[in-house]
Design goal:
The protein is of the alpha/beta class and 331 residues long. The protein is built from 12 helices and 10 strands. The structure holds pyridoxal-5'-phosphate (PLP).
């Protein structure tokens, strides 16, 4: 299938235009020089999605809020830790779309409003703090909260799992369509694409998009949260849901299109490694681009290390998924 046909598949879904697309695709020549790669290295600037502090979840929110509007929701509920990028972007997206939004944080109210909390305050967000608790308990609380709103006659739309749902990940199917079009327009050959794997929605969308468009590149998923086998299972679940949702690629074997890398994860979510922190300084010093500790620096290290150790031999692109808001609380 070519990108025009893939766009027809996506056109069946109601999408709100919230971000600024396409995001830039450009070379990172100083990083390439540092790695000694013979092949060009690129960056896809999804930190510049054009709303709030930018980042990947704007793409998910375009589809999810499109669904919310179609279902005539009158309030959007998002939840996460205080520094959740998704929560801050949901606030900005709802403000732009004229939707009410309530944010539920499984944290205590911080004494100082910084990073994404500051952005939320500036955006006039309705933030509720339910105390520190595991994510699954927060999700249960939020479900109950939505039922109460319904009993009061409201129509809440719940953003689940940090916007990493099959519908939300259509945003990354679209990102790959966009990337393929950019490669065509810039006449560049891309062999490898490096993306982060958190809850897996971004990666699943990218893999499905690569399958749908017949993209020439291999997708490298750098897990920053789950163990390899666990993330592979999550991805396979998402890919099955995307097949159902779109009615496309039935029986397709996705495994050959991607690799999950566990070796850059360190001790798990939010626990940086020395090498990943080095990337933050390197990218700022070499290219004037900022990344953060949880998602983007580990993913960049995945690409840099794979190029340096020769497991990746060809041109490669790093997908910068944003997270700028959280950076200011990480040092
Ligand atoms: C900046 C950033 N990058 C990457 C991700 C990972 O996306 P996913 O959860 O879809 O794997 C997230 C998720 O919150 C994020 O905030």
């Amino acid at each position: 299938m070519n990108t025009r046909q893939a766009k027809n598949v996506l056109a069946d879904f109601h999408r709100l235009e919230l971000g600024t697309f396409p995001t830039p695709l450009h070379q990172v020549k100083n990083i390439q020089k540092k790695t000694g790669s013979r092949f060009p290295l690129y960056i896809k600037r999804d930190d510049l999605t054009g709303l709030g502090a930018g980042g990947n979840k704007i793409r998910n929110l375009e589809y999810l809020l499109g669904d919310a509007v179609r279902k005539k929701a009158d309030v959007v509920i998002a939840s996460g830790k205080c520094q959740s990028n998704l929560c801050a972007l949901a606030v900005s997206a709802c403000n732009k779309a004229n939707l009410d939004c309530i944010i539920i944080h499984n944290d205590v109210r911080p004494e100082r409003m910084e990073g994404n909390q500051l952005l939320n305050v500036l955006s006039g967000a309705d933030m509720r703090y339910i105390g520190d608790m595991p994510d699954h308990e927060r999700e249960a609380y939020v479900e109950e909260f939505c039922r109460e709103l319904e009993n009061q006659g409201r129509h809440p739309y719940l953003i689940k799992n940090g916007a990493s749902t099959a519908l939300g990940s259509l945003g990354y199917v679209q990102a790959v369509v966009e990337l393929c079009d950019q490669c065509g327009a810039q006449e560049l050959q891309l062999d490898h694409l490096f993306v982060p794997g958190g809850n897996g929605g971004l990666a699943a969308g990218a893999i499905f998009g690569a399958a749908l468009t017949g993209a020439p590149f291999h997708v490298h998923v750098v897990t920053v949260e789950h163990e390899k086998a666990e993330l592979e299972e999550i991805l396979s679940g998402f890919l099955g849901e995307l097949q159902q949702l779109t009615g496309q690629l039935e029986g397709f074997c996705f495994e050959k299109l991607y690799t999950v890398h566990e070796e850059y994860r360190g001790e798990g979510w939010g626990r940086p490694t020395k090498e990943s922190v080095d990337q933050i300084y390197d990218l700022a010093k070499e290219e004037g681009i900022f990344i953060e500790k949880v998602y983007t620096s580990k993913t960049l290290y995945g690409m840099v290390d794979s190029v340096e150790n020769g497991t990746v031999n060809g041109s490669a692109c790093y997908l910068h998924s944003g997270g700028f808001g959280a950076l200011f609380t990480q040092f």
